[in-house]
Design goal:
Layout: H1 2-15, E1 22-29, E2 32-39, E3 50-56, H2 63-66, H3 71-78, E4 80-85, E5 88-90, E6 94-96, H4 114-128, E7 131-141, H5 143-154, E8 161-165, E9 184-189, H6 206-217, E10 224-227, E11 237-243, E12 250-256, H7 272-282, E13 298-300, E14 307-311, E15 318-323, E16 329-335, E17 341-342, E18 351-359, E19 362-370
Amino acid sequence: MKINLLLFLLSLLLFTPLQAQWVTKRITHSGLNRDYMVYLPNNYTAANPASLIVTLHGLGDTMENFKQIGFAPVADTTNYIVVVPQAVADIITGTAWNSGAGILGYYPNSNVDDKGFLNVLIDKMQLDYSINPERIYMCGYSMGGFMTQRMACEANDKLTAVASVAGTLGSAITSCRPGRDIPVAHFHGTDDATVGYYNNTFGNSVDELITSWVQNNNVNPIPEYSALPNTMNDGYTVDHYLYSEGNADVELFKVNGANHVWLKKPANDIDYAQEIIRFFNKTQQPLGIENLEYTSVLIYPNPTRDEIFIQTGNSQSVEVTFFDTLHRKIVNITATPETAISLKSLRLQSGLYLMAIQSKTGTSTHKIIIN
């Protein structure tokens, strides 16, 4: 009995997720102290280089607030390190990026070297942590989206792909010359009264933005269209446009009826953080090669209650087995990636589980929490 109790306690120690936390750090660049927050995923180890995602907040916002946007839960299951830098306060507008977005000839923080700061920040992250240099990403919301687009146009040497939400290319950026193909995803509500979808006071329209990237990346200008399932009563529908057949995909998520908001599940049909990670994960495999086997698995949401999604990078079926913390098999099913697994139908109670996902290329094991 004592031996069994010892094994049980040891199993809990081994398979209970670590309590990952945000930490605040500071670097000095161009004479300014610049703060940023870092989130390490639970499964981070120096032996397994992580992906890095730099997330940029909107006008007047703070890193403390923006860290709650929803990337940390996804990062825990995908080995992403999340960093949230703080913009400098402009004397008129509050915290703002030197993004090139302005109005009436005024561009906030136009004398602040944010491009240099963000590049130095990426270098610092690579010094402090084990990061795969081919998996460095940036995304931003509102003015953070404008800044992300500016980085993609003018300072993309370190970036693998970018995504912007409700922020296009600022009016001060009169020429976007990336110098290479770069994968770009954009998310925007058609009823955005702050950064207009069709008539953007601060920069170009969504259609102009997408056209410029389609031309830069030399992809098919006729997109593949799909509509996301409209299951939530949130007043929005989501149209998805994929521009591919080139070296770097362009994706547009047109959210009909949405204003200037960041959308999340389960309240909405789309979860921006999850879709952005999905888009970035595509770049972890060579483009233009058919029938690729998956090299990473995205599982979300985690923790979860009613259902869980698996994304593996292709459409092959996988065997999914749930174990308890004593490694006893609970249930085994065959699942298709991109399809929700109903946890209620499997009659899984609240608690910690191990989930093994097996394909013909091997097996990966993940810890999940059911609330």
